[in-house]
């Protein structure tokens, strides 16, 4: 289960160090697994998987529920570790990581059997010929999971649970910035009685991730940036390894004139600043109807100014540190670019005053345009740029003017109008009067369109990514040849013409017209 131990002489150079971004203090270290170690982990997973797949859903569920029990019992300590490794408030580690993970564990431990029940397929008139078809969902084998740092527990844990429940083994490569929380996840499953080899955790950096893609697993579940996602898809193509890509976003929020103003403003502020804006589904662009813009903007500025920023371990803190210097620099560059091009900073706009930690003040910008980086590229930080629109059509056009398509939201009291607009937005999920949180619903699919990636996690669609649908076709009339078998003749061709004109209409009555020809051909085939 644990990462292979490195040779003693290599330990110092081949380790990754985990830091608390709020203080810069080292929290711990983890091995940097190299290619051979990754391959060995995949071999162990492959050896362990068939026995696991032969276990019933109930037995697999029992292990997941035991791990859930341990997570629940140790939630405070684990939330603190998540907070320390990422900088996010403990409250967010609980509400946005531990609660959804517990929910996912509960749901898939109980529902997977039903979700993966074999399905009969209606094969129309072939059924009258004694044939039947069904789909049986088989595990894929070994699933490689590569995960980012922004939700270091929930993102990999959800996928681990789904993969295990589907009968697979997992090799998990967590982000180099947050290795400790995934090692903890591995420990929970080990203590829950998961047999060795079924959850291998290989800590390391991008080179470890690349080694996992190269280790010929049966599917890669990748969550991360668009740039890395493209590299992973390219590398996976070498072995035609299928990939699910959960990539970045530039998620729009459309606030219509009839929206509940107070709630929409609070939703915008939470959607933009929760997790310090480091959620793939964060509100990164806000479009508000011109008529209500002054009141709406005033409210979001007021709300933003009340937010308390500081160390995530402080229970009264709303917005924590950012997770790494590179990301903070991107945020700073986007804000500077916007300001240079005429954006107005209504609040925030600079690095936090804490000299050590990686803080960026929650920032509200107006006078922004789609020429600015802040409206085009993923910022992944606590910035809420607001633009106005005159018409519904303009709002939809602006929302769709992006290479990304992960989530979007529409705010209106008119639900029918909200749904009508949702249907015109290019995004994997569109919420009406909600933001961000549906990743936390175990039953609903998660994933994007355009450069936000392809494939799904969560819900039945997510579970189906982790199995292969095997088609079983049976002909119960085992003594008769098929009409279309050898040998061919002018009469056979005439029958096939008749099949083309009649059988393919799906009408049994039309097909019955061919009965005499069919009987004669069968007779001939049996001679
Ligand atoms: P990243 O792409 O830098 O890294 C993601 C993971 O890939 C890490 O574990 C990293 O070590 C690994 N990696 C790096 N190079 C690799 C390579 N060549 N081959 C294989 N693996 C490699 O992303 P990040 O900075 O850790 O995470 C932030 C990004 O993740 C943002 O763009 C965010 O939008 C996205 N994200 C998307 C979702 C979603 O569900 N769509 C969820 C969370 C985060």
Strand order across the biggest sheet? 12-13-14-11-10-15-16
Helical amount: 40-55%
Are there runs of 5+ residues with pLDDT below 50, and where? 1-6
Oligomer: single chain
Distance between termini?
A: 63 Å
Q: Count the helices. How many?
A: 18
Task: Specify the overall morphology.
Answer: globular
**What integer is the average pLDDT?**
96
Helix/strand/pairing category: alpha/beta
Give the biggest sheet.
Answer: 7 strands, mixed
Proportion of β residues? 15-25%
Count the E strands. Answer: 18
What layout of secondary structure does this protein have?
Blueprint lengths: L14 E5 L6 E6 L3 H19 L3 H17 L1 H12 L3 H26 L3 E3 L9 E9 L2 E5 L7 H12 L3 E5 L5 H13 L7 E3 L4 H8 L5 E5 L2 H12 L5 E4 L4 E5 L5 H13 L9 E7 L3 H13 L19 H16 L3 E4 L15 E4 L6 H4 L6 E7 L2 H9 L6 E5 L3 H8 L6 E4 L20 E2 L4 H6 L2 E9 L14 H12 L6 H5 L2 H12 L1
Parallel strand pairs: 5-6, 5-8, 6-7, 8-9, 10-11, 10-15, 11-14, 13-14, 15-16
Antiparallel strand pairs: 1-2, 3-4, 4-18, 9-17, 12-13
The chain binds nicotinamide-adenine-dinucleotide.
């Amino acid at each position: 289960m644990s990462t292979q131990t490195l040779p003693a002489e290599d330990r110092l150079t081949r380790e990754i160090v985990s830091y608390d971004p709020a203080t810069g203090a080292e929290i711990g270290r983890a091995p940097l697994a190299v290619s051979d170690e990754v391959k060995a982990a995949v071999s162990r997973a492959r050896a362990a998987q068939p026995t696991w797949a032969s276990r019933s859903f109930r037995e697999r569920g029992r292990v997941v529920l035991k791990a859930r029990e341990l997570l629940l019992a140790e939630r405070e300590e684990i939330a603190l570790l998540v907070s320390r490794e990422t900088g996010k408030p403990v409250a967010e580690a609980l509400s946005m990581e531990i609660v959804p993970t517990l929910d996912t564990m509960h749901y898939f431990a109980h529902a997977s059997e039903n979700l993966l029940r074999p399905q009969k397929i209606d094969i129309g008139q072939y059924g009258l010929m004694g044939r039947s078809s069904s789909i049986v969902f088989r595990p894929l084998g070994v699933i490689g999971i590569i995960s980012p740092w922004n939700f270091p527990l929930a993102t990999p844990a959800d996928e681990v649970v789904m993969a295990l429940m589907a009968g697979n083994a997992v090799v998990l490569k967590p982000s180099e910035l947050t290795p400790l929380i995934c090692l903890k996840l591995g420990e929970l499953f080990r203590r829950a009685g998961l047999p060795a080899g079924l959850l291998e955790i290989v800590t390391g950096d991008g080179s470890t991730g690349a080694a996992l893609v190269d280790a010929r697993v049966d599917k890669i579940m990748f969550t991360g940036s668009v740039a890395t996602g493209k590299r992973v898809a390219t590398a996976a193509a070498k072995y035609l390894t299928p990939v699910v890509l959960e990539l970045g976003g530039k998620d729009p929020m459309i606030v219509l004139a009839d929206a509940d103003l107070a709630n929409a403003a609070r939703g915008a502020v939470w959607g933009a600043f929760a997790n310090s804006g480091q959620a793939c589904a964060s509100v990164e662009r806000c479009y508000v109807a011109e008529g209500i813009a002054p009141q709406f903007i005033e409210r979001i500025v007021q709300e933003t100014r009340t937010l308390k920023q500081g160390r995530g371990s402080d229970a009264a803190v709303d917005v924590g540190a950012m997770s790494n210097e590179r990301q903070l620099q991107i945020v700073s560059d986007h804000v500077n670019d916007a300001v240079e091009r005429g954006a107005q900073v209504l609040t925030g706009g600079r690095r936090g005053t804490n000299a050590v930690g990686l803080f960026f003040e929650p920032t509200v910008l107006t006078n922004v345009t789609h020429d600015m980086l802040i409206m085009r590229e993923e910022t992944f930080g606590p910035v809420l740029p607001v633009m106005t629109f005159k018409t519904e059509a303009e709002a939809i056009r602006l929302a769709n003017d992006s290479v990304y398509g992960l989530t979007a939201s529409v705010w209106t009291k008119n639900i029918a109008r909200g749904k009508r607009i949702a249907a015109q937005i290019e995004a994997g999920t569109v919420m009406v009067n909600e933001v961000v949180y549906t990743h936390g619903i175990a039953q609903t699919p998660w994933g994007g369109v355009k450069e936000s990636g392809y494939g799904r996690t969560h819900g039945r669609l997510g579970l189906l990514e982790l199995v292969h649908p095997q088609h079983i076709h049976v002909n119960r009339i085992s003594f008769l040849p098929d009409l279309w078998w050898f040998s061919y003749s002018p009469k056979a061709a005439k029958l096939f013409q008749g099949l083309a004109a009649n059988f393919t209409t799906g009408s049994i009555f039309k097909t019955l017209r061919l009965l005499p020809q069919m009987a004669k051909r069968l007779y001939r085939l049996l001679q």
